[in-house]
Amino acid sequence: MKILTKNNWRSFLFFLFVFILLFSAGAVINRPVRSLAISASSPFLRVLRNFSLGTRGFFGFLGSIGDLKQENEKLMQENNELLSKNAELANVGNENQLLRQQLDLAPRKDYDLEASFVIGQDPQGINNFILIDKGSRNGIEEGMPAIVSKGTLVGKVSEVYEASSKVLLTTDPQSTVNAEVENSGARGIVKGEYGLGIALDMISQKDVINEGDSVITSGLGGAVPKSLYVGKIGKVKESADKLFQQAEIVSSVDFSKLDLVFIIKGF
Amino acid sequence: MQNFIFIVFCLILTYVQVSALPIFFEVHRIPNLILSFLVSIVILKGFQWSIKWILLLGILLDIFSFQLLGLNILGLFVAALVAFEIKSAYRLRARRILFLVMFEVIIFASKLSFDISKIIVSRLVALTTKYSYVYALNIFSFDYVLSVLYTLIFAVPMYFIASRFIAWLYRNQNDGIIKR
C-alpha cells in the first residue's frame, strides 16, 4: 500500500502550512477569533444546552417513576429536618449579629454574585473547563472565583470574552487554589488531578489531618475569598518526595453536571 | 447554497458536541461525533472532496476546545487520511455485516491517529517553542477506552445521517456518492 499519493502529499503539505500559519498567528488572532465565534454562538449553545437538560430531566423522570413514592417520603423527612435546622440557624444568626454589635466587629459581607448558565464544555472532554454565558459586558474579569450553592468553590474565570467566559474548574491539573483544613488550620494547595479528582497538596508533615475534615479556601493571595467550601478530606498520603502530605478531596459537586454557577465579582 | 447548508450542518454538529453531549456523558468519555461525521464523508465522497470540511470542522474544534489553533485541523487531516487509505486498500464490502466491521475498524484507526497525532504535535510544539500547551490525554486510561467505544457506537448513526444528508444535498449532482 502506497502511504501517500501525489495529491495527498500536496494536501499534507497544505495542512502543515495551515497549521504553522495558524500557530504563528495564534497570539494575534486567537482572542478575536474565539471572542467572535463564542459570542455569536452563545445564544444557540444556551438553547441547545437547555433543551438537552430538559431531555435528560425527562428521561431521568421516566426512569425514576417507580421510586417516586420513596423519594417523596425521604424528601418530606429531609424537609422537616431542614426546617428545624433553619429555625435554629436563624436564632444563631441573630445571636451572632448581637455579639458582633457588642464586640464592634464589622458585619459579614454578602458577595456580589453574578448568576451564569453553563453553555458548553470541552467538546473532546480533555480539559476541565466550562463556558458560561456572562462576559466582560457583565463585569466578569479574569481570576474571579466561581461557586455553586452559595459557597462551594468550583473554579476560577480564566478567559473573558464579551458575552461569555471560560471557567477553569478546580479539577483541572492547571488549577491551583490556596486552602486550609477547617479543624486543624493546616494549609495547602488545592490542585486538580487527571480525571475529575481534586487533591490538597503541600501540607506540612507536622500538621494533623483526618479523613472527613472540611477543606476551605484560605484567602491567601487575595484572589479567592476566605472560607469558601472546597470539599472533605479523603485518603491521606505522603507526597512523592516525602516532604509534604497530600490528601484526596471528596467534593460534593458533580463537576460534569454543572448547570448554573455564580461568579463572585466582589468580596 | 449547498455549501452554505453544509456549513450550517457542521456548526450544529459542533454545538451538539460542545453543549449537549457533555450533559449525557462524563467528561473524558465524550464520543467524538465530529470525527465520526468527517470519516463518514471521507468514505462517502473521497478525501480530496472532504478537504475544505476538514478545515472547517478543525477550526471549529480548535475554537471551542481552547486548544492551540491548528492542532485539530492537523489531527482531523491525519484521521481522514488514515480512513481514506484503509478504505482504498480494503474495499468496503456490500454485505452489511462486513461493511459494518470494516467501518468500525476505520473509525477506530482514525480516532487513534487523531489523538496520537495531536499528542505528538503538541509535544513537538512544547519542545521547540515557548508555548507550554500539552495535550494531556492518556490513551491507556479507562476513560479513553470508553470514549473510543462510545465513538464507535455513535459512528454508525453518524454514517447513516451523513449518507442521507449528502444524498439529499447533492441529489441533483451526478458526481456520485461512492457506493459501498
Give an account of the 3D structure.
In chain A, 36% of the residues lie in helices and 30% in strands. With 267 residues, chain A is α+β, with helices and mostly antiparallel strands. Chain A starts with 5 loop residues before the first helix and ends with a strand. Chain B has one domain (2-175). Chain B is 74% helix and 0% strand. Chain B has helices spanning 2-24, 33-45, 47-64, 71-89, 96-128, 142-169. Classes of the chains: A alpha+beta (267), B mainly alpha (180). At the A-B interface, helix 1 and strand 1 of A face helix 1, helix 3 and helix 4 of B.
Short key terms for the protein model shown above:
heterodimer; A: 267 residues; alpha+beta; six-stranded antiparallel beta barrel; 2 helices; 12 strands; 36% helix; B: 180 residues; mainly alpha; globular
Summarize the structure.
The complex is a heterodimer of chains A (267) and B (180). Chain A has helices at 6-64, 68-103, and strands at residues 112-121, 129-132, 145-148, 152-160, 165-169, 176-181, 187-192, 198-204, 214-217, 229-238, 244-250, 260-266.
Number of domains of chain B: 1
Oligomeric state of the chains present here: heterodimer
Q: Globular, elongated, flat, extended or rod-shaped: what is the shape of chain B?
A: globular
Helix-strand pattern of chain A = HHEEEEEEEEEEEE
Low-confidence stretches of chain A: none
The total count of strands of chain A amounts to 12
Helix content of chain B: over 70%
Distance, first to last CA of chain B: 27 Å
Summarize the amount of helix of chain A as a percent range. 25-40%
Number of helices of chain A: 2
